[in-house]
Amino acid sequence: MTPLSITQAQMTRDPDQPDDNRPTLAEVARIAGVSEITASRALRGGTHVARATLERVQTAARAINYMPNRLAGTLAGGASRQVAVVLPSLSNSVFSDVLHGLETRLEQAGHHPILGVSNYDPLREERLVSDLLSWRPAGLVLAPAVSTAETRRLLAGSGVPIVEIMDVDPAPIDTTVGLSQRAAGRAMAHYLLGRGYRRLAYAGHDISTDPRALSRLQGLQDGLAEAEVTLAATVLLPGPSSVPLGRDAVGQLLQDCPVGAGHDRLVVCFSNDDMAVGGMFHALSAGLDVPGDLALAGFNGLAIGQALPLPLTTIASRRVEIGELAGAALLARVAGKPVEKVQDVGFRLVIGATT
Amino acid sequence: MTPLSITQAQMTRDPDQPDDNRPTLAEVARIAGVSEITASRALRGGTHVARATLERVQTAARAINYMPNRLAGTLAGGASRQVAVVLPSLSNSVFSDVLHGLETRLEQAGHHPILGVSNYDPLREERLVSDLLSWRPAGLVLAPAVSTAETRRLLAGSGVPIVEIMDVDPAPIDTTVGLSQRAAGRAMAHYLLGRGYRRLAYAGHDISTDPRALSRLQGLQDGLAEAEVTLAATVLLPGPSSVPLGRDAVGQLLQDCPVGAGHDRLVVCFSNDDMAVGGMFHALSAGLDVPGDLALAGFNGLAIGQALPLPLTTIASRRVEIGELAGAALLARVAGKPVEKVQDVGFRLVIGATT
DNA sequence: CTGTTAGCGCGTTCAC
DNA sequence: GTGAACGCGCTAACAG
Fold first, then answer.
1. N or C terminus: which one in chain A shows less Cβ crowding within 10 Å?
2. Number of folded domains that form chain A
3. Is the separation of the CB atoms in A168 and A347 below 8 Å?
4. Has residue B5 got a pLDDT over 70?
5. Are residues A323 and A175 in the same domain?
6. CATH number, position B12
7. Is-above-0.85 flag for pTM?
8. What is the CATH number of the domain that holds B298?
9. What is the pLDDT averaged over residues A329-348?
10. A271 and A157 co-located in one domain
11. Chain A residues with CB inside 8 Å of B304's CB?
12. Which residue is nearest to nucleotide D8 (CA to C1')?
């Protein structure tokens, strides 16, 4: 042990920090007998470094369990490998599917999502966007709620690639991946009209905060209007979509729209498949014939709808794929490659036994 | 426009970076006419700052749309407000429920999860833990796959609070929140024995990579052994749990275990509710009486199981609550408060119509 | 209450 | 192929 002068001791470590003595690049460099920057180069690509020194550095790093500090690396100019992800909900499997696809694609490139969930609250979304951007991510993926002007300002001024997902109809700030929610609603209208239904109702959750559910409803109405049909009734219940909410909604609906013998057959369109499952429960409890007395149509193609004894008629969205494509688009943008501003993955009408 | 000397130009900004000219704390301070540290204090708590200067700084910050750089803040000594979260899956709603609860609790404290999904791959989990720790998070939440020794070394040596979730039986590295998977399996055994079942089978997904499903199976066998009963048959199919996999598993199972007239009634226990739903489908297609010929028992209490015409007998886990408690435990640890090493939230036997 | 000094750990300049 | 100097943006210590 050679004694250290006070100056050296001060420069190498702070005696007040007994806990946080994680090895730094400087120590790796010292052990390997090279400069910090050479160690840095060796531990990353290994380019512009002699094979011998590369191995010395790697050995030294392993010997002291060196773990790079990406905060410092990113601050010093390296590209961030974090991607901000803001979703409106996780209680609906729609967004966990998207997140699943997104995370898979990001991880392949060594990127990681920082997650925020807005619960469809515009102010919370705004705060999340602000918070997550302050981590200086490489980009941001957003399934927007009803965004505030301030949110859009933050996004536009962030200087990083933005990928909006789920609905390709609104003009994108930067890039968007999804489907046309409005066209999906219209497709359901066309299908139901083609099946001969003329008496339609709508049962939804609180769609005032869910712009995509609202677009689907509008698309449905558009499609009906083309045949000069209007919704016989609409019930909107507060709260997020769920099985019990759908059951309650149908219960209310049937008070205004009697069904059964002596009435035209009624088809209820739901804002989401879980709502439709609830509707099915109500029909079972009330002894209604599905689809004879009451027909049901959902949206999203969730597993729960297909698990029913009568598989649900619905429109399937390609959620995992949307996540994967959003990740790919973001990574391409980060790499400076050109990306289509709008990627429409489409949707698929699933004709079940409930219509 | 006053001409700048070369020295000034070099000190204030780099002409090679036209894009990234986000305002810094230094600019806020300059506009407000204070030092950087005063501006820093004002923009955080506002403590030890005169009310007048506080307002000047805040006004200046808003005027130039200042957004703090948390990378720099954290590197300089501030506590990180990121929490690493490593989950084995997102395709099963079990973990999106947990993530939902966790994110909610973290966000309340201004913390954000950085997410990694291992797909039950030990090596991928190891890489994720390493990657996420290199962001120097305030802590780490982990629903472990079959962890490698290297993973445990990384965790133990990380110096940050670790919360393991889902199963309270393994000895925690630091802290754990969940339920006893083994006790849950045993509880199901006791219930089924109490109902008079003596002929039991097991249908599972690839539980070799899913330690919790394996523990439940062991608990089930433990409970049966107490009554000197053993499983009549076991089918394990590769891949993650899903509805189709459950259907296939029951199909195979019934080749060895005939049911119906002339046979003792059989109850099949599944590794997860979605598998059990698949089993129900097989029963429906084969025209079997449930639970007369074939009884079914799931695990986890997922919505899909309760959405069946016959609600599924299962054991409900409190997933959202586990996430919330894990977040609370982590935040408490970060704040230096004492935390129970093991938090058992228990489980609930749900007696449906399938047994 | 405010400012000065001194870094956090790393990567991007340039040189050699 | 390697290194020196510098700065990323911010905050913890002290000083006053």
1. N
2. 3
3. no
4. no
5. yes
6. 1.10.260.40
7. yes
8. 3.40.50.2300
9. 95
10. no
11. 303-304, 307
12. A76
